[in-house]
Amino acid sequence: MEAQAPKRTSRFYAVTVVAGMEPRVALVINERAQELGLDVRSIIVPARIKGYVILEVGDLGDVTEAVRGVRYVKRKRPILMRFEEVLGIAKPKQEIPSLRRGQKVEIISGPFKGMIGTVEEVDAQRNQVSITLAEQTFRGTVTLPIEDVKPLEEES
After folding, report:
1. Model's pTM, two decimal places?
2. Does residue 156 belong to any structural domain of this protein?
3. For residue 147, which of 45, 68, 75, 96 sits 20 to 30 Å off, Cα-Cα?
């Protein structure tokens, strides 16, 4: 059995690029990492932050080699980021709507997308809501994640 070298811990580095060119730079870095056998574990193109590409690597040298000579990279010196910062950028917190029993809601994702229903029960512990669907094609109660529904405007 061959002894494998222990995998180094991941570090995250932000690379400054020309705004609007993030996807193109990410593709070039990915191709380059594969060609040169660099330890680039993931590449993140943040949707909310323009002008940056984030690389997950085992060593700073892999970042430097991956961006060397790449067009649209503005600053050659990468910025070290903490995992919590990357997590906040890559997976932003969703605003959970406040719902109450009897309120009309629209389902905005999943197999029941576009259907209208009435809230029967809200389970804040499990982050779920039970809804009675008011559609003629499908009548019944379904339980969904709270973020999959949107409250409809109350009629005055």
Report:
1. 0.58
2. no
3. 45
CA–CA dist 77, 15 (Å, integer) = 7
What range defines the domain where residue 141 resides?
A: 104-151
CB atoms within 10 A of CB 106: 15
> Are residues 111 and 77 part of one domain?
no
Provide the 3-class DSSP secondary structure of residue 146.
helix
Rounded distance between C-alpha atoms, residue 65 and residue 59, angstroms: 10
pLDDT in tens, the chain (156 residues): 455 555 668 999 999 999 999 999 999 999 999 999 999 999 999 988 899 999 999 999 999 999 998 999 997 789 999 988 888 887 766 566 688 899 999 999 888 888 899 999 988 788 899 999 887 777 788 999 888 899 986 543
Of the candidates 137, 146, 95, which has an alpha carbon nearest to the alpha carbon of residue 119? 146
